[in-house]
Design goal:
The chain is an alpha/beta fold. The chain has helices spanning 13-16, 24-32, 43-56, 68-71, 80-95, 124-141, 154-162, 175-203, 231-248, 274-280, 302-315, 334-350, 393-404, and strands at 6-10, 61-65, 99-105, 147-152, 211-222, 262-271, 319-323, 355-361, 380-382, 389-391. It is built from 13 helices and 10 strands. The chain is globular. Bound molecules: beta-D-glucopyranose (BGC).
C-alpha cells in the first residue's frame, strides 16, 4: 500500500472483541455493577466479516487496539494463541487492502497491573512493563504494521480514572493521582515511540516509513460569560494540549518530538462554563435534540477545522483524525454529522494543514464503557441479541463521500 490518504474506521478491543477477562475493565464492570462487556460484538469470532464490511464501505484503513492483557495475561507469560489471533487480524486487513492502524493502549490495562501493589499507569514498573510489551509487539507485527497509535486519549483516561470516578480504579477528585497517571502515560508514550522505532528500524532497515503517534481527545471550548477570568478556557486548553505538548512539540524531549503524527479524536465543542464540565464528567443532566448526540454532546463541525489547525500550528507534524463520530441510535443525525465534519476536514486541508487520514468512530456499534451498550456510534448497526450487522444509511453515505474525494493525495490539496 502506498501513501494514499487513509479513509478508515476506528474500534477498540475491549469495546468489540468480547471475553476480555484479563483486563482491569472486566473486573471493574463487576465491582461497580456496570453492564458486563461479556461477548461484546464477538469481534473475536466475526472479525473477518467485519473487515469485509469495512472494505465494502470503501475504506482503506482499519484502526483497532491490541489488548495487552490478552497477549500477556500474567506478567511475563505470553499467550501464543492470542498473538496468533492478532496476526490474523493484521493479515486480514492487509488481504483486503486495509492499512492496519494498531492502538497499543485503549483505556484498558492487564488486571495484574493493578494487583500486588501495582497502581496502574502511576507505577513506573507498569510503564516499564508496557515498554517491554511494545518491544515485543514491534518484533511480532512490525513487518506488517506501520501505523501505531501509542496511547488513546491520555487526558480522558487520567480524568475519568482519578477525577470523575467512571474508569478503573474509580478515583474521585484525586488530583494528584490524575497528574501522576498523566505523567506515567507521557513516559509510556515516549518509551513506546522509541521502542517501535528502535526495534522495527533494526529488524527491517530500509523498510517502509513508520508512523507513531498518540490519539488525543480535543474539545473546542467556546467562550462563555460564565467563564470568569477565562479560567475554564485555560484549564480546557491544558486538558487538550498538555499531553501533546509533552510528546509532540519540537522541544518535547532533548532529542525532539516523540511522534511522527498527531492523532486527533474530535467529537464536540462545549461552552466554557461550569455546567459543561459537570456534564462532561457525567454529573449533570444531558441535553438532547438535533444539535446534540444521544450522549448530550454538542455537535460543532467547525471545531474539527480548528482542532486540526491548532495541532498543526503547535507541532508542525502531520495530523490524522483518529476518531470522529456521534452517538445516534436513529441514524438521523449521523449523515449530516458525517458530511459536515468531512467538509470541515476539507477546509483544514485547504488552509494548508497536512492531514493524512480520517478514521470514523466507529465501524460497528460497541460497548461505550461505563455507559453500556445503549449509545450507538456505528456506521453499522449491531443487533446484540443475534449479533447481526446491518449497514446504516450513514455507512453507505460514507462510501459515497470517500468516492467523491478520490483520488485524494497525501497532505494539502
Ligand atoms: C474513545 C472511545 C469511545 C468514543 C466515544 C473516545 O473517547 O476513544 O473509546 O467509545 O470516544 O465516546
Amino acid at each position: 500500500m502506498g501513501d494514499a490518504f487513509l479513509w478508515g474506521t476506528s474500534t477498540s478491543g475491549h469495546q468489540i472483541e468480547g471475553d476480555n477477562r484479563h483486563s482491569d475493565w472486566w473486573a471493574f464492570e463487576r465491582a461497580r455493577g456496570l453492564t458486563p462487556s461479556g461477548r461484546a460484538c464477538d469481534f473475536r469470532a466475526r472479525f473477518g466479516d467485519d473487515l469485509d464490511i469495512a472494505k465494502a464501505l470503501g475504506t482503506n484503513a482499519f484502526r483497532f487496539s491490541l489488548e495487552w492483557c490478552r497477549v500477556e495475561p500474567r506478567p511475563g507469560h505470553r499467550d501464543d494463541e492470542a498473538a496468533r489471533w492478532y496476526d490474523a487480524v493484521v493479515d486480514g486487513c492487509l488481504a483486503r487492502g486495509l492499512e492496519p492502524v494498531m492502538t497499543l493502549s485503549h483505556f484498558t490495562l492487564p488486571l495484574w497491573c493493578r494487583r500486588e501493589g501495582r497502581v496502574g499507569w502511576r507505577d513506573p514498573a507498569v510503564v516499564a512493563a508496557f515498554v517491554r510489551h511494545v518491544r515485543w509487539v514491534a518484533s511480532r507485527y512490525g513487518d506488517r504494521v506501520r501505523w501505531f497509535v501509542t496511547i488513546n486519549e491520555p487526558n480522558v483516561l487520567a480524568a475519568a480514572s482519578h477525577l470523575a470516578g467512571v474508569f478503573p480504579p474509580g478515583g474521585l477528585l484525586r488530583v494528584g493521582r490524575a497528574r501522576a497517571c498523566h505523567a506515567g502515560l507521557v513516559q509510556a508514550h515516549v518509551g513506546a515511540y522509541r521502542a517501535l522505532h528502535e526495534v522495527i528500524g533494526a529488524r527491517w532497515p530500509g523498510g517502509r516509513r513508520l508512523w507513531v503517534g498518540p490519539a488525543q481527545h480535543v474539545v473546542r471550548w467556546r467562550p462563555s460569560w460564565a467563564d470568569v477570568g477565562g479560567v475554564i478556557q485555560r484549564a480546557g486548553a491544558r486538558f487538550n494540549w498538555a499531553f501533546t505538548d509533552a510528546t509532540c512539540g519540537p522541544d518535547a524531549t532533548p532529542s525532539g518530538p516523540t511522534a511522527d503524527f498527531v492523532g486527533i479524536n474530535y467529537f464536540m465543542a462545549q461552552p466554557a462554563e461550569p455546567l459543561s464540565l459537570a456534564r462532561f464528567m457525567g454529573w449533570a443532566p444531558r441535553r438532547w435534540g438535533a444539535e446534540w448526540s444521544d450522549l448530550g454532546w454538542p455537535i460543532d463541525p467547525e471545531g474539527l477545522t480548528e482542532a486540526l489547525g491548532e495541532a498543526w500550528r503547535r507541532y508542525r507534524l502531520p495530523v490524522m483524525v483518529t476518531e470522529n463520530g456521534v452517538a445516534d441510535v436513529s441514524d438521523r443525525v449521523r449523515p449530516a454529522y458525517l458530511r459536515a465534519h468531512l467538509e470541515a476536514l476539507d477546509r483544514a486541508q485547504r488552509a494548508g494543514v497536512d492531514v493524512r487520514g480520517y478514521c470514523h468512530w466507529s465501524l460497528i456499534d460497541n460497548l461505550e464503557w461505563h455507559e453500556g451498550f445503549a449509545p450507538r456510534f456505528g456506521l453499522v448497526q449491531v443487533d446484540y441479541a443475534t449479533l447481526r450487522r446491518t449497514v446504516r444509511p450513514s455507512g453507505r453515505l460514507y462510501r459515497r463521500l470517500i468516492e467523491d474525494r478520490s483520488p485524494m493525495k497525501t497532505g494539502s490539496r
